[in-house]
Specification:
This protein is of the alpha+beta class. The protein contains ten helices and ten strands. Helices cover about 40% and strands about 20% of the residues. Strand 2 and strand 3 form a beta hairpin.
Length: about 300
């Protein structure tokens, strides 16, 4: 959706509320009391009532919006600003565009939207051929976040990066390449084999084939998936079997350093969720805003 289309489609609070109601009904309403999915709409109350136990569900209940006091127009404007550009947008800029008085309210709103993005992508597993590697994002200093390469600094956050790729070969030139589809990035508390295995189990399909370097933490991966191909780290590996994870790492660091003044390590996962959500939907074009409204309207409880 483009800016002019957004202004025409959502000029006021009622238009945003009505759109959100339709999105929730498309995803399905679930009763918190009895888990019933059949409901009917009470127009006068702007609530759904359970067909089984008569328990009522509000428009925000069960979604990321639950307990939020921000109007629907603020939510929709924030979602629009976060999806209109491939790159990210700072909370300060969103605050300025929305004309909101308090920065923290806008910052919290954007983090809730990022949480919805992450929860949406958690529903899917990477399949077939998967590249796996780790990246190191520097922790913030008083001067901001410095995003360095390599593993030399102790003040860095370890991130597992996965890319679902497919080997290709040109029939005429016999040139080999790899096409990429979807990505996942997960912050790791440490570099142990147990945590790596847990990440593999939660993010990858058990029938996939994983390509990685010969890290000592990857020794048990082969027990969790169909096959594990390990190669010694080299320029050939980086530009071949691990091409897309390194492109994603570079793009993420460039994106963050060019947009945000500082990213605290405890919030890094949310920024990674936003980056991967938009990257995985890079071919959606103007439909990405519509898909984000669905992610926010999903019942997570």
């Amino acid at each position: 959706m483009r800016i002019l289309e957004f202004v025409k489609s959502f000029p006021d609070e009622d238009s945003c509320r009505e759109n959100f109601r339709r999105k929730r009904e498309e995803e399905g309403i679930k009763c918190k009391k009895c888990d019933e999915t059949r409901h009917y709409w009470l127009q006068a109350k702007w609530q759904w009532q359970c067909s089984k136990c008569d328990f009522r569900t509000t428009l925000r209940s069960g979604t990321i919006m639950e307990d939020s006091k921000m109007p629907f127009t603020a939510w929709y404007m924030a979602m629009a600003l976060m999806t209109f550009s491939k790159k990210g947008i700072s909370a300060k800029e969103v605050q300025r565009q929305m004309g909101r008085k308090y920065y923290h309210c806008v910052w919290s709103l954007m983090h809730k939207i990022r949480t919805a993005m992450g929860k949406r992508d958690e529903k899917y597993l990477l399949k077939d051929m998967v590249e796996f590697d780790e990246a190191f994002f520097s922790k913030p200093t008083r001067k901001g976040t410095i995003l360095k390469r390599g593993k030399g600094s102790q003040k860095q956050v370890n991130v597992a990066v996965m890319a679902e790729s497919t080997p290709l070969e040109d029939v005429n030139t016999k040139r080999k390449s790899r096409a990429c589809r979807y990505f996942k990035m997960k912050v790791l508390d440490d570099h142990t084999a147990d945590l790596i295995n847990e990440t593999i189990t939660s993010c990858l399909d058990e029938k996939c084939i994983v390509f990685s370097d010969k890290s000592k933490s990857y020794v048990d991966i082969s027990k969790l998936i169909e096959a594990h191909v390990m190669e010694k780290s080299s320029n050939e590996l980086t530009n071949g079997n691990l091409k897309w994870v390194h492109i994603a790492i570079t793009n993420a660091k460039t994106n963050f350093s060019g947009t945000y003044h500082k990213i605290k390590s405890k919030y890094l996962q949310r920024y990674l969720d936003e980056f991967c959500y938009k990257l995985n939907r890079r071919y959606f074009g103007t439909k990405i805003f519509d898909r984000l409204t669905v992610a926010v309207a999903m019942n997570y409880w």
